[in-house]
Amino acid sequence: MSHIFLVAAEASGDAMGADVIDALRRNAPQVRISGIGGELMRERGVSSDVDMSGLAVIGLIEGLKAYGRVKKAVEDAADVIANADPDSVVLIDSWGFMWRLARALKLRGVRAKRIKLIGPQVWATRPGRARVLAQWVDHLLCIHPFEQPFYKPWALPTTVIGNPALHRLPKGDASAFRARHDIPAKADIVGLLPGSRRAELRSVAPTLFAAVKRVTEGNASRQVVCMVAPSVAAEVESLAGQHPGKVILVRNEAEKADAFASMKVAIACSGTVTTELAAQGAAVVTGY
After folding, report:
1. CATH number of the domain at 174-287, please?
2. Shortest CA distance to 232 belongs to which of 245, 211, 251?
3. pLDDT at residue 56, as a whole number
4. What's the pLDDT tens digit per position in 227-255?
5. Which of 104, 221, 223, 254 fits 78 for a cystine, CB–CB 3.0-4.6 Å?
6. What value, to the nearest 5°, has the Cα angle with vertex 252 and ends 246 and 255?
7. CA 31 – CA 8 distance, rounded (Å)
């Protein structure tokens, strides 16, 4: 029986890991699945004791501050994977953490095939990362066909899988969402997606909240709806509490599609969520 080990270090990777688990159980139920991830992977019975909190960082300064946590998490994850002895390990997104984990696994001689799910955006910036990735992983599963030529000079095998975010959510029911939250049919719903990383809550979210304030201030027909990521729930609730108007906080992942479908416009931190919003028909303003 084949054994696949999944690793996700942040919320978007956890969602993708959950997608992979669901697909494997539908199409290859005989495969054994284990891993390290977040809440969504744990809900599917895939979890470990490795602490992955605080690894979702942005920029050089945040990266330097988190270096100690990243180094320890890499060693802890490598220990767990080596002991599990899987046939393949799937390293999901999270460039900075995952290439270091791939390196640790290779240097330790762990036999598992190292598969990177979602590559760095070498087509937009830092093309040298293609060489680094090719050095430490055996295969890359990428979203876009135009990514593949960047890896050919380094002989890294690639497979295009498309964008999982386009198919993750069912078509949402905007009317049902309005009814559950007592939002009048004529009210315009302004979505607020402040991010799922603590660094985003510190550096990006205050500007997004300020933008929402400008859009809604003095207009009672506009209702703010904010999707709350579990990883930063306390921080989002604190910011929402300082907002002058009413903010409906949506914490239940099952409401996500309906909430997104109800939004006339969404002000969102850059990330996977922008694709999910667009797929539900919302106009999106992105902050980074």
Report:
1. 3.40.50.2000
2. 251
3. 52
4. 998 888 999 999 999 998 899 999 998 99
5. 104
6. 85
7. 19
pLDDT digits (tens, 9 = 90+) for 38-72: 889 999 999 887 877 655 544 444 554 566 778 88
The structure's pTM equals 0.81
> What class has domain 3-164?
alpha beta
Residues of the chain with CATH 3.40.50.11930: 3-164
Helices and strands per DSSP (H, E), number in the chain: 11, 11
Contacts of 121 (CB under 8 A, 6+ apart): none
| Calpha distance 150→123 (Å, rounded) | 7
The answer, yes or no, to whether residue 165 has pLDDT greater than 90, is no
Mean pLDDT of the chain: 91
According to DSSP, the residues that pair with 233 across neighbouring strands are none
Cα distances from 74 to residues 237, 252, 270, 282, in angstroms, run 31, 31, 26, 38
In one-letter notation, the amino acid at residue 175 is S
Task: Tell me which residue of 153, 103, 94 sits closest to 128, measured CA to CA.
Answer: 153
Q: Where in the chain is the domain with CATH 3.40.50.2000?
A: 174-287
Output the pLDDT for position 47: 82
Question: How far is Cα 36 from Cα 214, in angstroms, rounded to an integer?
Answer: 41
pLDDT > 80? residue 191: yes
- The Cα-based distances of 236 to 5, 178, 195, 240 in angstroms read 32, 22, 9, 6
Q: Which residue matches tokens 């922008």?
A: 274
Question: Are 117 and 93 in contact, with CB atoms under 8 Å apart?
Answer: yes
Mind listing the pLDDT tens digit for each residue in 69-92?
788 889 999 999 999 999 999 999
Tell me the two tokens of residue 269.
Answer: 């931190």
Is the pLDDT at 25 greater than 80, yes or no?
yes
Query: 91 burial class (0-12, 13-18, 19+ CB within 10 angstroms)?
Result: buried
SS3 90: strand
